[in-house]
Amino acid sequence: MLHTLSIGELGEKLKSAQISSVELTRHFLARIERLNPALNALITLTAEQALEAAAAADARRAAGEDGPLLGIPLIHKDIFCTDGVRTSCGSRMLDNFIAPYDATVVTRLKAAGAVMLGKANMDEFAMGSSNETSYYGPVRNPWDTTKVPGGSSGGSAAATAARLAPFATGTDTGGSIRQPAALTGVTGIKPTYGRVSRFGMIAFASSLDQAGVFARSAADAAIVLRAMAGFDPRDSTSVDAPVPDYSAALGGPLTGLKIGLLREFFEGLEARNSALIHEALKIYRGLGAQTVEVSLPHLPLSVPTYYVVAPAECSSNLSRFDGVRFGYRCEQPKDLLDLYTRSRGEGFGAEVKRRIMTGTYVLSAGYFDAYYLKAQKVRRLITDDFRAAFGQADLLIGPTTPTPAFAIGAKINDPVTMYLNDIYTIGANLAGLPGVSLPCGYVDELPMGLQLIGPHFSEGKLLNAAHRFQQATDWHAHAPRGYE
Amino acid sequence: MNLTRQDVEKIAHLARLSITEQEMPVYVTSLSSIVNFVDELSRAQTGGVEPMAHPLDGQHQRLRPDAVTESDNHEKYQANAPAVQGGLYVVPRVID
Q1: Would you call A246 an interface residue with chain B, using a CB distance cutoff of 8 Å?
Q2: Hey, are the CB atoms on B41 and A305 less than 8 Å from each other?
Q3: Chain A residues closer than 8 Å to B1 by CB
Q4: What is the 3-state secondary structure of B53-95?
Q5: Is residue A315 part of a domain?
Q6: In this structure, is residue A377 part of a structural domain?
Q7: pLDDT tens per residue across span A91-146
Q8: pTM above 0.80, yes or no
Q9: Does residue A84 form part of some domain?
Q10: What is the pLDDT of residues A345-359, one digit of tens each?
């Protein structure tokens, strides 16, 4: 049962030649073939290239090389450019787009010897919280296929939960790693803004976008994040700071760690959800941590702030899709304006057009100050709240989502209700903070996530706190029925 | 504040998006509800607050030496273009 093993365990088996990467890759490809049709988690399978990459990893190992990801399979969110492989971003606009280069995340994981099995489904241009806005149809949650897996990295989350790969990449602009990780019972980390390169990651909202990891444990996520992170001169906001060995720091004591309970996250929170977080706090206290209550008074404004800032940035970023240089072009354009408007009107889906128009509106003459500038000011107030909270606590804790996975179709026609799914995750993006979601129990037999948020560049501390929780509990080891 | 059909038509034009007759009422309703939702921001006291454009304060735009670092890949890049002729992108006639 190779798919039940951790990245560390698989690495040991590869190192001791009990298995080869080609065998491991075949095992996961067979699982994908059998289980993906019911989930729609992957939209492109790269079996041939995967077997070649696996053979190359085996050859590197035979030549004496070693590394924690050498020969380990993965799935990339289809937002990352992959040289020679379709990179659709979940959109009709890029249905025919063959990326001409690799994203830095892809380059780094390739260099580490990880083997790409395919590309994961996602909300179109990462705009969505349910994976229902994809041009390729919704992803289904392996815990209950009538439910959404969350979004926008829904395919990566569902694939990780269904054990279709040991890990997957994702991106998080307003919660797109943490929210689907919570709803599918896996571990997801969104690093500090600037920690992982955005080069070759199709842009949505450039001041918020950050790449991260889905894995089945914090220990696995630590291995992957170390390989992905680091300075990249090709990303103008990449931070030039050394990447610590996250794995080496795991297991450290939590004695004296101050965990801040976010008051605003518990106001109106359903009792069963709240009880799970309080159970987790008991475990942390048992591990020697102290808990204090902290407040982020402006947090209730984080969703409206986000839904001004993110659409504004998206309307600028997505202006590159003009039907001229790449992507979808309408049939028989009568003039240049018709070419632009129909290529964009037909190439983008409903939610993407809604966000582009929201962004265009808040940036337009007469509304810029009232909306965009105002939102940027509130963004600072929210960030200052976090800074003050970190004066009282080392890490902050709360739920990842207000509810467990909801039914496919339940919220898709009501954008504001859908946007409120991200109420607990958006704050970290606005402030550029790292956050992790880890499984902490069930509501209505569906997994729920515990969220930890830390100061800038505290990924090591976050992963250790998550790891210590996972040593004391086994929620993260549960597999959905049929995917054990 | 609710947006009118004329508002949405103007926004769609600015965004260079064609919106079908069928889609129009959906956007009038949903964009109005989004605008009303984000109007909540007007409650916040922001006097004297510096707007924040970027999450990491103190970062500066980096400069690099003025040297050629990219090779010519135009054929590979243009392989994704809908219409190319002689290395140039083809669009409908702009000037008669």
Answers
A1: no
A2: yes
A3: none
A4: CCCCCCCCCCCCCCCCCCCCCHHHHHCCCCCEECCEECCCCCC
A5: no
A6: no
A7: 999 999 999 999 999 999 999 999 999 999 999 999 999 999 999 999 999 999 99
A8: yes
A9: yes
A10: 999 999 999 999 999
